[in-house]
Specification:
Oligomer: single chain
Number of strands: 6
Radius of gyration: 17 Å
Strand order of the largest sheet: 2-1-3-4-5-6
Helix content: 40-55%
Largest sheet: 6 strands, parallel
Shape: globular
Strand content: 5-15%
Amino acid sequence: MTKVLVLHNVSLVRSALAALLRSEGPFEVTSAGWRSATPRTESLRPDVTVVDLDCPGTTAVLADHGRAADRQVLASRSPVLVLASTGAPGSLHRAFRAEARGYVDKDGSPGRLVRAVRRVAAGERFIDASLASAFMEADPVPLSPRELSVLARAAEGDSIVEIARALHLASGTVRNYMAAATRKTGARNLIDAIRICRREGWV
């Protein structure tokens, strides 16, 4: 039995994805929102974790997942399979940097998701051709995983103190990351940097 964890902040969507997987294969499926992602993954030890790149909250978690120090915390090294759109190449770059193992086009058939879960659970990679083309045509993300993580949390409205606490950083270090992100994006200020990153699909 393949254990699958579906992460999405919209209850109806994650329930629908979980129901689809349960009906299509020998999958033991659990669904959860992003705020309970870490405790669920630590307790369940899923074989595959499915996430939607368009779901609010994915940026910070994926950026954290891309750092070696966090890989044992998030999903206990559970392979990540992302649902993505061809129109958001920046999101694909984020997932790639977080070492996602599977990439499924959200405009594809449900069978593609089922096939992808089986392949990723077996230790293989799965990439829809349409997403591969979008990824190759996209400009690289200029921000580091840590800068993305800080900016993503700032975009969600977290204060510097809250970001520092969540990422185990000093407040001054958080400010330095914000300044670096602003400079690298060519933005006028932090708010402009967030706007640019959202436009490009990076956060």
